[in-house]
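In this section we walk through a basic example: taking a raw amino acid sequence and producing a predicted 3D structure, encoded as discrete structure tokens. The instruction is simple. Fold the sequence below.
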Amino acid sequence: MHPGLGQILFISTALFFIGVYGFLTRRNLVTMLMSIELILNSVNLNFIAFNKYLWANRLDGLFFTIFIIAIAAAEAAVAIAIIINLYRSHGSIDVENAEELKY
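The resulting token sequence is shown next.
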């Protein structure tokens, strides 16, 4: 393993598990959305690290990262729109108060 790759993978793993912990323990939809973004950013770090250290002459990791950033931006826009509508209709953005979203 390359000297810098281990540190980047450690940071990526830490970001991933912080995101998973935040998603599973928080009941606020905005913090859950932020946790999903942390998970996606950890995946982006993995793509960039493996592209730089293992396949430096190819751009596959960069293209995957740009694709994930575009998907994350669209996902964040849709999720924020849903959260705003939920807040307007229920007055809260807690997951327990969103019973109509289950069915």
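Looking at the output, two observations stand out. The CA atoms of residues 13 and 42 lie 7 Å apart. Helices lie at 3-25, 29-53, 60-90. In the next section we compare this with other chains.
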